[in-house]
Amino acid sequence: MIAAKDKPTNLTPEEYFAWEEQQLEKHELINGQVYPMGIYAMTGGSKNHSLLAARLITLFSNHLEGSGCETATSDLRINIVGTNNYTYPDVSVTCGDRDKTTTQYITYPCLIVEVLSTSTEAYDRGGKFRMYRQNPALIDYLLVSSTSIEIDLYHKNDAGDWLIINYKEGDAIELKSINLNFPIEQVYRGLTLEPGNGE
């Protein structure tokens, strides 16, 4: 992560929200410092990135209709539990009542999805996941390739241990956080997948 140049530092959350409203791009707030949002700070995500996120949002929203759970796009921030840090995942789902009282962010998602790109994959697998896993409500963290039919699921089991499950073509994905099973091809249908075609 590279700090945004010529941007204010040591921001409180309130100052960050007010400042970001005046910006053209989204920024994350980490330890008082603002950081451009990866691919969105440059030229925007790839077509596959956008389509995969949209398909997952539609899939989750349809499955959860009437359940009280909410599925959000990459426009909704996540507050990292116990901190003043805020990130933007590609997709998130919250089923907690505590998140119904906030308007600019959620804090307790049970499911987070990041569609991987060349510029953000290391952060999504490393530092970002270390922050996300501080959330006691998080059960599933889904990392979706935009260049091949591959999805990695980080799942927290009943003992509190994180397991990594690698899904590939022909597999069915199980998301216990929202009680959903679906074939991996359901979200990749019709996409042109080429290695190195990520952002």
How is this structure best summarized?
The protein has 199 residues and is α+β, with helices and mostly antiparallel strands.
Question: What is the element layout, followed by pairings?
Answer:
Blueprint: H1 13-20, E1 27-30, E2 33-36, H2 47-64, E3 70-72, E4 77-79, E5 86-87, E6 91-94, E7 105-106, E8 109-115, H3 121-125, H4 127-132, E9 140-144, E10 150-156, E11 162-168, E12 172-175, E13 180-183, H5 185-188
Parallel strand pairs: 4-7, 8-9
Antiparallel strand pairs: 1-2, 3-6, 4-5, 6-8, 9-10, 10-11, 12-13
Question: What attributes characterize this protein structure?
Answer:
globular; alpha+beta; 13 strands; 5 helices; six-stranded mixed β-sheet; three-stranded mixed β-sheet; 21% helix; 199 residues
Report on the structure:
The chain is α+β, with helices and mostly antiparallel strands and 199 residues long. The strands form 4 sheets. The protein has a 6-stranded mixed sheet, covered by helices on one side. A 3-stranded mixed sheet has the order 5-4-7, with no helix packed on it. The chain starts with 12 loop residues before the first helix and ends in an 11-residue tail after the last helix. About 3% of the residues have low confidence.
